[in-house]
C-alpha cells in the first residue's frame, strides 16, 4: 500500500514538474502575446475616459460675468454591473427614480434589451446639477463615518449596498447669468461648445479648449494604474462692454417700445426696429450695443414671447428657422438702411478735407433744387433757410446746401471719401454677420444720385459704419476699427493678448475735425438736435430722417448721433428708430428722446462732468417719466419734456432708390477671429493709409 502511494506521489510530482516546464516554455516563447490578450480583454473595463475642458468665460470690462460654463453631470448606467447580481436591479431602479426622477421603465428597458443589457455605458440623464449628484450619492452610499453607518437600519444598509452600476460623467453647461442683457453681442452656444452668433461665434475657437483623458491600464505586474492628461480650459474674453451702460440702453429701448405699443401699427410695438450703440470715439471700444425685443440667451429657441401658440403651431421648419434668425440677428451690425442726415457731417468733412469748399463759403437755400428732371425739396419746403454758412447748413440740416456742396465735390471725390470713411465695406468689428451696405458707383451715380447721397438718401449703410465714421470725424480724424474684446486671458488668468485702439487710417485733418465738432455743437445748441441736449454739458449731434422705399408711403427711419464733451469727445451714441409707431413718423425727436435719456444717466457714471453754466433742469420725454434711473431714484420731474417735431429729411416720391445688390446672400457670414473678420483689401483700406 505504501509503495502504491509512493508511486502515485511520484507520478503527481512528475506531472507537476512537466506542467511547470511547459508553462515556462510557453511563457518564454509566447508570454508577451498571451499577456497582451488578457490585458486587452481586461482593458475593456478600464478604457480611457474623456475629461471635458471648461469653455472660457465672457466678461464685461469690469469683470462681470456675461457667459460662463458650470460643471454638470451626465447620469451613466452600467448595465453589466446591474445585471451581474439579481439583487441590484430593483434597488437601483428605485433610487434612480426617487432621487433623479428617471423613469423605472426606461431603466428596465435598458437592462433587458438585447442591444443594451451588456453595455457598460448608457446615458440616462444629461446635465444634472452638482447638488443633484451629491444628493444621490448621499442617499445611496454607506457613510464613511462609522457612527452614521451604524445608525442605518439593516434594510437600509442592504438597499444602499445593492444600488450599483450608476456613475456620473463630468460635463459643462453654458449659462448666461444676465439672461437677455447684450444678447445680440454675446450670442450663445449650440450643443458641443460650438457657436455661430455673437462673440460666442466669432471667438469660438479662442473660447474652446482641449479635452483631457483619464486612461486606465494594467502594468507589467498586472496592477491597475491610471494615467491622467489634464484638460486645457478655453481662454476667456474681457470685453469692452459695460453692463451698467448696457442696462441703461436696454431699459430705455424697452420703455420706448412699451409706451408706443398702442400706436396705429399693430404689427409691432413701439417701432419696427430700434438700435443703439454707445462707443468711445477715441479708440473704437463699444460700451453698449442693443436693439428691441431681446431674447434670453439661456433659452435661445424660445419664440413664445413673439408668437402665439397658434402661430407657432402653424409654422413649418423653414418658417421657424426664419423666425429664429430674425430674433438672433444683430440689427446694429447686420441691417443696412438709408441713414439720412446723420451723414451730413461726414459729407461736409469730406468737402473741407478735399478742398472742395472752405469754412468761409456760404450757400443759399431757396427751398430745394431742380436736379435733372426732378425737384428735390429741402426739409422746410416751401419755406427756405436763405443764406447759410457751412456750420449753419449742419445746424439747420439743410438739404439744399448739401446738394450744392455735392456739386462742388463731384461724384469722384464724394465716392472716394465714402470709401475712405469705409462705407460700402465692413468695418471689421469682431462679430459675425456684419453687413456692408450698398453704394452708387461712378457708372451709376448721376446728378440726382449725387445730390441725394450728400444727405444720406440713395445709398445704405449699417449702424456700426456710421459710428466708426462719425467717430473719425470728431476725434481728430483717426479711423479706429470698432471692437468688442479688449483682452484675452488664459485659464490661469494671464493676459495673452491685449487689444487696444486699432488705427486703420487718418481720414481728415485735426483742423477739419475741430470744425465738424463745432458745427455739430451748433446743431445741439440751436439746431435740429436741441431735443437731445443735457443741460450743463457741451455736446455735439446730428439728426436724421430718412424716407423709406417705396417713396411716398410715409414710412421713415429716424435717428440721432451725438457725443460729449464737445472739444474732447469721450463718448458717442447713435440711436436709430425704424418706423416709430406713431401717425407722423418723420420726426427725429423719437431718436433724440432715447439718446437724451441714456446720456443723462451715463455722463455721471463715466465721470463726464458738466462744463457749461445753466439754470435749466433736465426734462426727459413724458413717456419716460417713472423709469427707474441708474442711481435708483425715480425721475419724477413734473412738466413736459421737449416735444416739438423736428423734420430734417425730405419727402419726395421721385427720389432715387438705393442700387440693388444681387450678390447679397441670406444668413450669417462665417467671419471669425481666425480670419480677423476681413482683410484690409476687403475693407477697402490702402496700405499707405495704415498706421505703422
From TrEMBL:
Residues forming the Penicillin-binding protein dimerisation domain are 51-219
> Ranges of Polar residues compositional bias?
669-678
Q: Where is this region: Disordered?
A: 629-692
Mind listing the GO biological process terms from this record? cell division
- Keywords linked to the UniProt accession: Cell cycle, Cell division, Membrane
**Its family?**
Belongs to the transpeptidase family.
Any Pfam family matching the protein: Transpeptidase
State its location(s). Answer: Membrane
The family database entries (SUPFAM superfamilies) matched by this protein are listed as: beta-lactamase/transpeptidase-like, Penicillin binding protein dimerisation domain
The reply to whether Ribosomal protein figures as a keyword in the UniProt entry is: no
* Domain Penicillin-binding protein transpeptidase span(s) in chain numbering: 275-599
Task: Return the Acidic residues bias intervals.
Answer: 659-668, 683-692
Question: What is the name listed in the Swiss-Prot or TrEMBL entry for this protein?
Answer: Cell division protein FtsI
